[in-house]
Amino acid sequence: MKLRHTTLHQLRIFQAVAEHNSFARAAEALHLAPPTLSLQVKQLAENIGQPLFEQLGKKIFLTAAGRTLAEACHDI
Questions:
Q1: Burial per residue of 40-59, b for 16 or more beta-carbon CB atoms within 10 angstroms, e otherwise
Q2: Is residue 2 scored above 70 in pLDDT?
Q3: pLDDT tens track for 9-18
Q4: pTM for this predicted structure
Q5: Higher-confidence residue: 2 or 33?
Q6: What is the Cα gyration radius of the chain?
Q7: CA 63, CA 72: separation in Å to the nearest integer?
Q8: Which of 12, 22, 54, 69 has the fewest other C-beta atoms within 10 Å?
Q9: Nearest alpha-carbon partner for 43 in 76, 68, 13, 23
Q10: Which bin fits 49, alpha (ψ -120 to 50), beta or left (φ > 0)?
Q11: Which residue has the higher pLDDT, 47 or 1?
Q12: Sequence-ordered alpha helix ranges (H) in the chain
């Protein structure tokens, strides 16, 4: 997993989404607009080169890469 060009801000956003299992709730907790939060997660996934979340209906789940990154965020 490449973390080149990844910012600490993006990791905080990703961790919040992973903890809340919701982009909207994470945006509210971080006092960010949902589109801003979504864009940061999208850029993070592009930097890593793998999807971090999988959406089934209205629910989101971490992918294998997302789980690995969530563990790394917890360590950081």
A1: bbeebbebbeeebbeeeeee
A2: no
A3: 999 999 999 9
A4: 0.88
A5: 33
A6: 11
A7: 14
A8: 54
A9: 13
A10: left
A11: 47
A12: 8-20, 23-30, 34-48, 64-75
CB 26 within 8 A of CB 14: no
* 58-69 confidence digits (pLDDT tens): 899 999 999 999
Count other Cβ atoms within 10 Å, centred on residue 23: 20
Q: What's the maximum distance between 2 C-alpha atoms anywhere in the chain? A: 32
> At which residue do the structure tokens 């905080």 appear?
12
Residue 4: CB atoms within 10 A of its CB come to 6
> At residue 45, what is the residue type?
A
Q: Tokens representing 66?
A: 């997302």
Asked if 60 and 18 touch (Cβ cutoff 8 Å), the reply is no
C-alpha to C-alpha distance for 58 and 72, rounded to whole angstroms: 26
Q: What's the mean pLDDT when you consider all of the chain?
A: 91
Q: At which residue do the structure tokens 């790394």 appear?
A: 72
